Amino acid sequence: MSLPRQVPVTMEPSRMDFSDPFFREPTLSSFRDPAVYTTRDPYIHQSLVRDPIRDVSSKSFFNPERQLSTMDTELQRMATEMRRMFCDMQHLMPADSNPDNWRIKENFYLDNPVRQDQNSGQRFFRLQFDVRQFKPEEIFVKTIGNQLTVHAIHDDDQEGKSVHREYNRQYVLPKDLNPELLVSKLNREGVLTIEAPLPITDTYRDKLIPIKHE
């Protein structure tokens, strides 16, 4: 009979990088009017200045193609920056607030726990659980043989009100998984991830199938 094993829950550190240029204080560049406005000062010769209203043919004042090109470049730059910001901030976004949605996700992970790294081809086991309603010290992960148990309990008594909340999930681990390799991580959004590498077997190795020419 296998002895129970407690899997420690570790908090994932924040990956926020405040040295990113996006978080620096923006600087405003000084604005310079490309056209010099006319003046009625009798001491200034009128040939030295030009009227932007009359001189509409001036390329420096009115050039639709250049303005549209500049606007298009700026919009592309903003779109690229927004995509980069979304990718950098995605891990900081709150988890789905709808419990039903997370139950669907949990069930999907329970039905499809085996993943494969696209680069290395390494297979690994991964499950995720929504435990945002519990503190880290209230969450317990343990294994008995090939059975994994995630249990969390919360009790709160204050101002004559008693609150009891409990969470329990059990899962039968694959036979080729070593329970000693299981690690659990809890992120800031309250998502508990349990994973472990799986051994490489001949069943999952790449196999070259020869092509017969008829």
TrEMBL record:
Residues 105-214 form the SHSP domain. GO terms for cellular component: cytoplasm; nucleus. The keyword Chloroplast does not apply. GO terms for molecular function: unfolded protein binding. GO terms for biological process: protein refolding; response to heat. It comes from the Eukaryota. Keywords: Stress response. Pfam families: HSP20 (PF00011). SUPFAM superfamilies: HSP20-like chaperones (SSF49764). InterPro entries: A-crystallin/Hsp20_dom, Alpha-crystallin/sHSP_animal, HSP20-like_chaperone. Belongs to the small heat shock protein (HSP20) family. This is Heat shock protein 30C. The lineage of its organism: Eukaryota, Metazoa, Spiralia, Lophotrochozoa, Mollusca.
